[in-house]
Amino acid sequence: MTCLAGMIAVVTGASRGIGAAVAVEMAAEGATVIINYRSSRTEAEAVVAKIKDAGGNAAAWGADVTQPAQVRSMMDGVCAQFGRVDVLVCNAGILRDGLLAGMSYEDWSDVLNVNLTGAFVAIREVLGGMIARRSGSIVSIASVHATSGGRGHCNYAASKAGLIALTRSLALEVASRGIRVNAVSPGLIETEMTRLLREAAEPELLREIPMRRFGQVQEVAKAVVFLASPQSSYITGTTLHVSGGLEL
């Protein structure tokens, strides 16, 4: 039997990249997956089609994670249609890179609002149901920059470090209620988000990675599935690095 059989999972920002890979992997492991998107409806529906073509079950659902009313409407709709949310993956994220001396207030606040506050909003909307059922798993997508920092990434690194702190604190709050809260911290993964960085400095970047290669989205997805599933039933409040050793 697959490790997520019968579960209902919501993945935010799942129309492409790591989020899409997580959704596909979760569906392959038996979950019904809600593909959340903000504006990329066509891409989200393509992920749904890929999952259904493989025999899985999925639905696309639009909601901006920075808008509490939209997230509440989405989660209410998911519960009305599917009964509950067993797994939440907080993946929605953006980049607005630049040195802090020249960073605009908008670039700072936009990144924090999507990457960190967006996770808070989504978690808050599912937590009540999980507490009532005394079960649930929450996984947030952090980043190696949360612990190692990165030139030009002050806003992004701060948002991801906040996610790890949120993960640890919330894990303490809800462990006795049967809810587990963990994070996955990817390194340099081959996605559209990292394409320009990789193209600009590939040799230098590869020298910094002990495994001497970039990661694949499927490798991150498998780590998320592990933490979401009963296979990690005694793990909470932890951050699992999927970075080829970059954080070392």
Strand content: 15-25%
Counted by DSSP, the helix tally is: 8
General shape: globular
What is the β-strand count?
7
Distance between the termini: 36 Å
Biggest sheet overview: 7 strands, parallel
| Low-pLDDT runs | none
Summed over residues and divided by their number, the pLDDT gives a mean of: 94
- Helical coverage, percent range: 40-55%
Task: Give the helices and strands as they follow along the chain.
Answer: EHEHEHEHEHHEHHE
Which structural category do the helix and sheet elements fall into? alpha/beta
Q: Numbering strands along the chain, what is their spatial order in the largest sheet?
A: 3-2-1-4-5-6-7
- Radius of gyration based on Cα positions: 17 Å
Sum up the structure in keywords.
about 250 residues, alpha/beta, seven-stranded parallel beta sheet, 8 helices, 7 strands
Could you give a quick summary of the protein structure above?
The protein is of the alpha/beta class. 48% of the residues lie in helices and 15% in strands. It has a 7-stranded parallel beta sheet with strand order 3-2-1-4-5-6-7, with helices on both faces.
